[in-house]
Every structure is written in C-alpha cells, then in structure tokens.
Amino acid sequence: MRKLFLRTFYLIVFCIAWFATVPNTHAALYAGWGALANNRTGPDFSLCFAGDAVDVRADRVLNVLDHIRHIEWAANIKFHPPGNKSIRIQSGQALDALDWRCPHTSATNGPLPQGDLGDVRILLHTAANNTWWTTDPVGGHDCAIVNHGSSWGATGNEPKLSKWCNFSVKLGDDPIEDPATFYLNHTLHEVAHKLGLGHEHNRSDATCAGGTVINGSISSATDPSGTSVNSQPQIFMTAPFDTASVTNYVLAACGTTGNYDFTGYSAHDTLSLRILYPENTRVAEIYGTRVIKSGQRLVLGNLWQYLGASVDSSSTSVANNFSWKLNGAQQATTPNLNINIGEGTYSLVYTYQDFLNRSYSFNNKVEVLSATQFDRRMASQAVIIGAVY
Amino acid sequence: MRIKYLVLSSLVLGMLSTSGAAIAAQKSVICTPKGVATFPSRIHIRCAQSFSGIVFFAYKSSDSAGAARNMSMATSALISGRNVRVFYDPADQSGSKIGCNVKDCRLLTGLEIH
Questions:
Q1: Residue A281: inside a domain
Q2: Judgement on whether residues A108 and A197 belong to the same structural domain of the protein
Q3: A361 CB near a chain B CB, below 8 Å?
Q4: Fewer CB atoms near the end CB (10 Å): N or C, chain B?
C-alpha cells in the first residue's frame, strides 16, 4: 500500500513538474541561448519582483532572496535591485522587500523606459498579479515568451525575451501543501534557466529520462519580428549526467528530486555557474604538486576537469587553447601536463580560454629539487606539522 | 608522506564531522595557497583565485591550538606546492569581528591538503 502511495505521489509530482516548467527551455547543462554573463563581467546583476509581490507578499519575497544567496555563493554574482547597487542581499543589513520592486516596463507618455529594468524579473502570484500570471504570451513590448501554466524561467538572453518583458521568471509556491517551506531548489532551478542552464535530464546521456539533446547541438527560436534565430551550441558542461542537479525534474526512473528539494546546487551545478560567471580576476586553476623530487614526472592538470567539467580537446569542451610554459618555453597545449624536467626552479605559466572566449592565466613556479633538498623540504614541513600535533 | 596527509586530513575532517551540526551552509573550495599570514586576532590563507569574491580564509587566534593547526596545514601546502580544500560557511559573516572582511574573507572551518 505504501509503495502504491509513493508511486502515485511520484507520478503526480512528476506530472506537475513536467507541466509546470517551460518546455522550450532547452537542454544540456548550458542551454545555448547565451547567459547574462555574455559580454558582461560580474558580479553586478539586477534582480527584482514584478507587480505587487513586494507589497503584499513581503515574506515570500524575502524567502526567495534567502534562496538567491546560494547563487551568490556559487559564482561571481551579486544581485542588487535595478538601478541601485547600494543594496545587496548579503550586506549584513536587514533586507526590505520594498527595495526589490521591478520598474515598470511599459511606455508612459511616449518612449519605452530605458536603463536597468532588471536582469532577472521574478513574478510571484498575488491577486493583482493574476492577469500577468495567466496571460499568454508574457506581456511587454516585443516579448514573445510563452507563458506556461506554472513555474518557468526564460533561458539566458533567448530571442523571445525582450528588455521590456513584464517578467522573465515565473515562480510558483511549491509545495502547495506547505507554504511555510517553499522548495529551495525550485527557486534555484528557475533562476538557473535565466542564468543560462537548461534541463540536465534532457541530455542525451540521461537515458533514464529519455534525454534527446546531443552535446553541441544548435536549436532555433523565432524572435518577435518573425526571424528564426539559432542558439549557441548547447553543451554538457559537466560529465556525466548529474542526478544531483537542481535543474532536473523529480524523476523516479533517475532517482532525482531535482527542483523539488532543499539540497541546493550540486557540486556540478556550482562548477557550471562558476565557469559561466567567472571571477573578475580569471585564474587558470590547476591541480597537482609543483614541488617534486628530481626524477619524478611533473604532473599538473586542469582543476575544472578534475572537478568534473567537460574539458578535453573536443569542440564541446568548456575550455580550450591550453598552454603550459616553463621559463617561457611551451611544454604542452593540452589540458594537462605530464613531463620530465631537470632540477631547478622554473617559472610556470598556464593559460586557457573558456567556451565564451574569456582568458584565464596562472603564474607561479615549479621546483624540481635534488633528493637531499626535497627530503630537507619535506622534513621542515614535518617539523611544522609535528610542532602543533 | 601521503599517509601523514591522510591522517591529518582525517583529523580535520573528524573535527568537522563532530561540529557539523552547527554549520549552516557548509561549502568547500579548492584553493591554491598564495600566502599564509598571522595577525593578533587571526591567521589567514590567501588564495591565488577567488570564490565569489572571497580570497582570504581566516581562523581566530583566540583558539591558539586551532589557529596553529590551520597555520601549519596551510604552510605545509604552500611550501610543498599543493592545493588545499577549504571548508567554510559562506553565510557566516561573523569574521568581521576579527578583521576578516565580509567583502573578501570568510572563516574557515577545516582544511585538507590536496
């Protein structure tokens, strides 16, 4: 009986999730419609709540802002209300929901409003917001976003989304059974779409979900003027299929709880966001040991790859154009380095570009010590550690 | 040597697991140490890279044994050219009391040499 109940529950949850989320949010982890990060350096992005949610649902607004902190912990993103960078979610000051109201998107006595109207415009349900909530397509000048029945997040900067769309994320109050505990992952899932991530379970290697999107595939959409516009390649940012991602649905066949849970971004979600929204000083990240004994091979690698990112020599790699230089001489053009070198101290420069052509570099040194020097170095290390244990 | 690292890491992780209940939003990152410093109120590790703007990971000097342990782990990683995994709570901004600025610093709760 319990099994039957659970199956029925999962089936209902799956159906709700299936119909609740916009189906044209394309797949693979990077959805290919660009991201807010395109041609923008972080960390400043604006976020706001459309309609009157800040007036009549302040608690829910603050609850969503609390969830949004997880995005700021994952990547170089610091949200502020449109046009006001002095207010931050993690300033240490108490937040006031009224500060996070979205500016109007409609023309008043002439031209359309310009300036910052909100990179992420979230619609919560209220009585006054009900018309926007239910009207398809989303209102606003040149906005062609289909307004599906329940929650969705428009993908990146897709062509259907204009600056004047009334909202770009529609966030329901799930689970409806318990309004006091709205799913953390639900917020992270929908906003992740706006940040450029698609549904992980749509990857072609997500066989448990029947995923069909091939790594590197191009999709297309029609913009408001009727022109078909191709996306950038949709790419699998991490490998393999990440069942812990918040961008999954609740899929019993895959064992995923996805958007309906409180787990927060998975390690691979975090890595993907960190790659999409890099730090302002972009450091090429490595793993391995830079102090070795003479005769040992120098083995250094790409940290993104080590952490699970799709880094290789293929066209869908999230990084490319690798260069490893020691004392100015190039040693390798592959993600990783594995060489023999003689004793000495070498300047190390490791560089690469990400798939959005942003450059990264790491400058440090490599030391190849004689056996005596190495043992002495390690002994000093043992002394340091031994002194405190 | 690796066994020693494992033992040390286990000790740190053991301490973490016993105090984990109080940690609200535990997170870890892999940091390439660029410097280690000691101040009257804290010790800190400076990473070569930043993590959502966080470059420094600090520990209070008032817990002298804990500060010494973290200092030695970080120094060990620095002189042996290795990375460290830093465990911390990004939501905890209480480090400002010991000079760990909210903008670029968080309190570390554990270290593991990589």
A1: no
A2: yes
A3: no
A4: N
